[in-house]
Amino acid sequence: MSTGSGAATFVDRYPEEASIVRQAFFVAFVAFGLGALFGVIQALHRTDILRFIPSTDYYTVLTAHGVLLVIVFTIFFLVGLFQWAITRSFDRPVEDIRITKAWLALMSVGSVVTGVTILLGFVDEVGISADVLFTFYAPLQAHPLFYAGLAVFLVGTWIAGADWFRSWLAWNAEHPDDRIPLQAFVVLTTMLMWYIATIGVAVAVLFFLLPWSLGLIETVNPLLTRTLFWFFGHPVVYFWLMPAYLLWYTVLPKIAGGRLFSDPLARVVFVLFLLLSTPVGIHHQYLDPGIAESFKFIAMTNTMFLLLPSLLTAFTVVASVEHGARQRGGTGLFGWLRALPWRDPAFTGMMLAGLMFAAGGFSGMINAGMNINYLVHNTLWVPGHFHLTVGTAVALTMMAGTYWLWPQLTNRRLYSRPIGLLQVVVWFGGMALMSNAMHVSGLYGIPRRTAEPQYQGFDFSTAFGSVAELNVQLAIGGTLLFVSALLFLANLAFSWGNPTTSGLGQTLPPALSGPDDSPRVLDNMRLWAAIALVLVALAYALPLGAIVADSGLFGPGGDAYPVTVVLNSVAVTAERLTASVGATLADVGGVLEVIR
Amino acid sequence: MHIHQYEKLWLGLSLLLIVGFVATVTYGAVGTPAISMIGDDGDTLNPNAIDDHPEFGDPGVEKVGESEYAAYVVARQFMFQPDPIVVPANTTVTFYVTSADVIHGFSVVGTNANTMVIPGEVAELTVEINDPGEYGIVCHEYCGNGHHGMEGLLKVVPADEYDGGDAE
Ligand code: HEM
Ligand SMILES: [Cu+2]
Ligand SMILES: [Cu+2]
Where is the Cytochrome oxidase subunit I profile domain (chain A) (predicted)? Predict the structure, then answer.
């Protein structure tokens, strides 16, 4: 509800921390706006509805879309939200604000360096480019600044995690017998997962790709760096998801008018994520030669178990919302649904996001099945799937959460709740269209990551409808999403113009069944971190060992393919051509001379 | 800890669902060998030395058994070799696919014959080929700024029309 409970807001109590949160959100939303612009360009270009960039630039756009949205937008929102959650739930200021500022600065500098390096791909004259997409598979090679920026960004996130662990230790010293508050619990388990997950990408970037792009080492092993990427690439999915879960578990019940159903079950869920999210990355490599089937099989089984925490979440969240509805006077088997605050964009946004997550979970189960994966691998089905999960469950929850958080961070009301409501509904509708079209196109075999999925030698055959219809659907959906993104950003921008008001503060109620009934071992971070490491070692030691044994740490040879030089080499070829044409002409001239 | 009765039920059902999934997928993988899984059976090789390789140096289709064929395919920016790949109908074809440069994809459109193509590795996939016809082949992994033009063709010809070797 817009009328606050009269309590002090977060910014009243922790102005410096609130400023950090706002800055992190600002970076996140700038990246979101740019990413959405690139998204609609892709949606129009690849469907051939409207093409105003050369197709070679499509890959610059796609790299920027991926990196800006799933690295910059999601992770900056995450650090902002986590800073809020840590400060709020421990109810203490950061230990040293200079450290907090330092990690935010490092992350920002890294993002700007990587982002600018990507965008320079539009300016051919500069000769800098990083059109390697957000997966940067070697031996395609980006400019060294692309990798360097990523490394700086990563270091920033590590320091952020350390900052939050430091807060925990300090709080713990003063409250030795207390249970870790749930929000802090989410932050700490998520960051442990992040430390483990980023080992993969850090090794890939720092030991192989960066030195290789600088010419310090000659070759890399493409299968090894790709496997290290996916060591990180799957858990990062949960890293994006955890801020959404934090909001679903701790804020959504409140907005619905109730309380979280079960705090212990929530802890179990987050521990499961920490344990299971890394030893599954090989499920992105079911089709990779050089990895034994047995390893793929293990990854698949683990992946299926990873469904468990999400299924538990579905239960707890629905139960909490129902509790809220009944508190508000709702009755009946389904009649309680009517009693919910559907006019509140924060509530409706999160509910719609949750609904799409269920659909995304379903298409995800299909991806995870090893044999069905052969049909949809690298088709549009895959972006169809993850625009439901990270593109909606996460992104829409972040937007909805922002509607609720904004007054807490600024003491200003949201500019317009009706526009907010329209915005979340338009996102849902646009995504329903775009994602549906992508899933169906994928089943027909239309590949992802391509500027022009039209081929000379064959057509895609469709069971019903036509590719042209699907394209129109995709483009309309993408356009609606872009409009929704603009509505969101405009609503926030106008909110800055609102006067500050006092008494907007909101409190978060404790869970129905609190942490005190749950075993203390759940709060033992050391134990969970150790088990998680063992599981990762079990899942990865053998496959990584086999790759290195088969083709060596630096691979069996092969050149680097810098994405910049594609252009240069055209230039070089042209130069050679003119040179040889010149020489031929000179010869001809010589011959002519002789004849004369 | 206190766990609500519904929570217990939900937990039980969730676990059951997961076990069910694993079982069906296992059955699919082990019980119905419609297509072999991509594994680590293939060799490794130096992508810069492909031209000297006994098979990939001159990629093409070979008869290796009664109704069994081996198709050696090289993916490179931005084409497949050979193109088209010609095989006789009603046979079993094992594709050996490798890359001369960057990571590519190899998928026969509309079928589940699909693999990643990684430089240094040889992907091996065995496919039952039935009726004559033409199938598109797509590179489904981004491989550079000409990626969208990278395609090939698989021609399945009646056995009596098959002239027994490389089309080129
Ligand atoms: C305005 C909203 C959006 C539109 C219109 C849009 C559109 C698209 C399209 C058409 C593709 C497929 C491109 C291709 O494979 O050729 C794509 C890829 C992708 N999108 Fe979005 N998207 C939007 C929002 C988002 C959001 C919010 C996220 C995540 C937070 C996201 C993450 C991604 C990722 C990771 C890819 C894959 C990039 C790659 O293959 O390297 N998108 N998007
Ligand atoms: Cu995954
Ligand atoms: Cu390609």
Answer: 25-522
Match 């089309």 to its residue by tokens.
B167
Evaluate: CB of A437 within 6 angstroms of ligand 1: no
**Average pLDDT value for residue range B150-166:** 84
Rounded to two decimals, what is the model's pTM?
Answer: 0.91
Q: How far A306 CA sits from the closest chain B CA (Å)?
A: 9
**CATH T-level fold of B47-161:** Immunoglobulin-like (2.60.40)
Nearest CA in chain B to A372: B112
The SS3 call for residue B105 is: strand
Q: How high is the pLDDT of residue B32?
A: 46
DSSP A354-421: HHHHHHHHHHHHHHHSHHHHHHHTTBTHHHHHHHHIIIIIIHHHHHHHHHHHHHHHHSB--S-HHHHH
- pLDDT attached to residue A45: 96
Q: Is the pLDDT of residue B88 over 70?
A: yes
SS3 A517: helix
Domains in chain B: boundaries: 1-35, 47-161
Residues 6+ apart with CB under 8 A from A573: none
Ligand 1 atom closest to Cα of residue A474:
10
> Contact B157/B88 with Cβ under 8 angstroms?
yes
**Residues in the 5 Å CB sphere of ion ligand 3:** B 104, 139, 143, 147, 150
Q: Which long-range contacts (CB under 8 A, 24 or more apart) does A565-572 make?
A: A566/B144, A566/B145, A567/A124, A567/A127, A567/A129, A568/A127
The complex scores an ipTM of 0.86
pLDDT along chain A (596 residues), means of 10: 66 96 97 97 95 92 96 98 97 96 97 95 86 93 95 97 97 94 96 96 95 93 94 93 96 92 85 84 85 79 79 85 90 89 96 92 76 83 94 97 96 95 98 95 92 86 83 97 98 93 88 80 89 84 87 87 58 42 43 38
Instruction: Specify whether the CB–CB gap between A138 and A205 falls below 8 A.
Output: no
Q: Could A561 and B144 be called an inter-chain contact, meaning their C-beta atoms sit closer than 8 Å?
A: yes
Topology of domain A10-595 in CATH is Cytochrome C Oxidase; Chain A (1.20.210)
What is the rounded CA–CA span in Å between residue A343 and residue A352? 13
Quote the strand ranges of A297-454, DSSP E. Answer: none
Give the closest residue to A78 by CA, choosing from A206, A209, A238, A243: A243
